Amino acid sequence: MFIGSHPDLLDLWPFREDSIYVVGKDGIPQHYNGTEWLPVLTENANPLMGIWASDENNIYAVGVGGVVLHYQGKKWDQIDTGSYDSLNAAYGYDRNNVFIYGVGGRLLFWGGDQWHYREPNTIHDLFCMWGTDINNIHAVGGEGTYRFHDGKQFQRKDELTSEEVSLYGVWGSAIDDVYIVGSHGTILHFDGSEEGEWVPMESGTEEYLLSIWGASPNDIFAVGDNATILHYNGKSWSAMDSGTDKYLTKIRGLRSDCIYAVGDDGLVIRFDGEKWNDMSLGEGA
User: Fold this and answer.
1) What mean pLDDT is reported for the chain?
2) Rounded CA gap, 186 and 222, in Å?
3) Structural domain of residue 19, as residue ranges?
4) Spatial contact of 229 and 237, defined as CB atoms under 8 Å apart
């Protein structure tokens, strides 16, 4: 199912330095307890593409074939949502407001009682969401897809790029400070102006950028193909030495000196404020 001694990792969720979950192509969640990585027993064998949690007793992992795993403090249960389209990611605000979404614009919403289909107004794959609240969500996807959720519906907006550019990650520090990353080194910034324009930024790379996360408005990181890590200091983007040659798929953090990125062959690296350190699957603390 995967090449290499460890699975390619596609997403992660850090709660604390001694509690981190990662998911990937082998379909087995792994948990880091501060000392070692331990596999989590589930009945799933499908690749897991995304993970999201409101807290340590409410975690969702989603993936190929519409698989949805839900952890509520004791074990991971497989949930049948009635949809079997492959899912790329999950995103929410609390245990009663969760979106899961993926291939072909498939989008489901958990409102606390059951899963409901939501119309995304696109047939393209959805890859990422970010927002300040349920009335302000940015969603991005393949072939330049961008949608905005106003609390009632996903509004069809003018696409931000050409169809040759796919948008993979979105993150913001506030309602008027939002960033999108995508293929061909694409970085777009929205400053909340009345014009509502997304302004292209100079990234200095043509690599695919797959994920973005920030500790503050002046401390933002983006990762992608060929071990690419970019850092934004509030003025410009610059390349960082990732300490690896593997592809990076996702980045999330706890604070400016505790940031994690995952990638191919079980790769997990941690930024301590000065450099990136290896803590991959199979490695100790």
Assistant:
1) 94
2) 11
3) 1-102
4) no
